[in-house]
Amino acid sequence: MSIYFYWMIGEVVFIILLFSFLIFKLWQSAKNKKGNIVLPETLSGKVIYYTKYILRLLGFGVGILLALSIFVAFERNLLSVFMETAPAPSEVTIPPDLGFDVTEVTFGSEDNVTLAGWHTPSQNGATVILLHGYGGNRTGMIWHAQQLTDAGYGVLMYDERASGESTGEYRSYGWEDTRDVQAAIQFIHSQNPDEVIGAAGCSTGASIVVYSAALFPEIEATWGDGNSSVRAQDMPTPTNPLMALLIGGNYMLDWMYVVKLGIEAPAPLSDVLPDIAPRPVMFVGGGTPFPILGSEGELFTHRFAEIAGSNAQTWVIPEATHCDGPFLIPEEYSQRMIEFFDAAFGVIR
After folding, report:
1. pLDDT at 326 over 90
2. Percent of all residues in the chain with a pLDDT value above 70, rounded to a whole number
3. Residue 50: its pLDDT value, please?
4. Contact assessment for residue 242 and residue 292, using Cβ atoms and an 8 Å cutoff
5. What whole-number percentage of the chain has pLDDT above 90?
6. What's the chain's average pLDDT?
7. Model confidence over 306-322: pLDDT tens digits?
């Protein structure tokens, strides 16, 4: 069983013990005071007395709930930091039914991380960098690669740092992965200096490619599916107390990443989005809402596009939740993605 299972068991046991202790202390306190309580004689006095008593109980309960929520947020974030920064190695093999030819390649990032990937040269002079979701590997973008190579595009799909077969001592939820995108750009241009470059990603991969587009003008078109926050400041204004608590937890999580990894946090994504202009960027999101937070479209898709400017487009897929558009509406998704890159690169069919 995973550490998550044992962590949750410990969490439940702690909460049960805590509430049992508090109930016992309340019962003991009430028992000790029982003989010393003098109730008011008038009806109005009794109403005021019991009203104050109920309010005190409610205030105590709210205080305990708030303290417990903060504790759970802290320990869950602590677990996330240790679990989600650990390397996620996996063996990657070329599937027999891949459908297009690839060359296994490696290239180095500026901090000596070696990225392992597959490269397919283009037939139309444009190559798209493909980045997978967090903790996965390059095989998570095979479907996108199949659509792009069928349309004549080249692809460079690689395992993100400390994932798959790429090296790296830790993962940083995409914070340090932009330097790997720069290395990917250099690799593509080493194969063909005149190659034009696009980028597409899913989930954390989407955040990496969109952020990289703001940093590197060599990326001439970007497709991000399932973008979310890079920093807590990227989160929207909360619409309910639970959402506010979750957003507050993100600020704590950012701080924990900095302390645990000993790295400097990047600027929020929302700060750099305007730097992508005038190059086109497509934000794709799911329209099916998550509990408490709402859907990707409500949280990020439209808001990020508005911040980016008139060069940004949006597509919220009503039936999708997160990066599942290719499986729900494969034909429409493929058509839209190819049309986006064709328009960006001037490809005429």
Report:
1. yes
2. 81
3. 63
4. yes
5. 68
6. 89
7. 999 999 999 999 999 99
The helix (H) or strand (E) run that includes residue 127 is strand 126-131
Tell me the C-alpha distance between 123 and 102, whole Å. 14
Burial of 37 (0-12, 13-18, 19+ CB in 10 A): exposed
Cα–Cα distance measured from residue 104 to residue 300, given in angstroms and rounded to the nearest whole number: 35
| Contact call for residues 223 and 284 (beta carbons, < 8 A) | yes
CA gap 16, 294 in Å, rounded:
30
| Three-state DSSP state, 157 | strand
Report how far residue 273's alpha carbon sits from residue 178's, in angstroms, rounded to the nearest whole number: 14
DSSP for 206-272 reads HHHHHHHHHH-TTEEEEEEES---SSGGGSPPPSSHHHHHHHHHHHHHHHHHHHHHT-PPPPPHHHH
Label residue 34 by pLDDT band (50, 70, 90): low
Cβ distance 30 to 72 under 8 Å? no
| 199, two tokens | 């980028």
For the chain, which residues make up each domain, given as ranges?
3-84, 90-236+271-345
Residue 313 CA to residue 134 CA, distance in Å, equals 24
Q: What is the pLDDT of residues 161-201, one digit of tens each?
A: 999 999 999 999 999 999 999 999 999 999 999 999 999 99
Q: Report the phi/psi class of residue 334: left, alpha or beta, with left for phi > 0 and alpha for psi in -120 to 50.
A: alpha
Q: Please state, in angstroms and rounded to a whole number, the distance separating the CA atoms of residues 130 and 156.
A: 6
Amino acid identity for residue 346 in this structure: G
CB 161 within 8 A of CB 184: no
Which CATH code is given to the segment(s) 90-236+271-345? 3.40.50.1820
Query: Which tokens belong to 214?
Result: 């703001």
The 10 Å Cβ neighbour count of residue 186 is 14
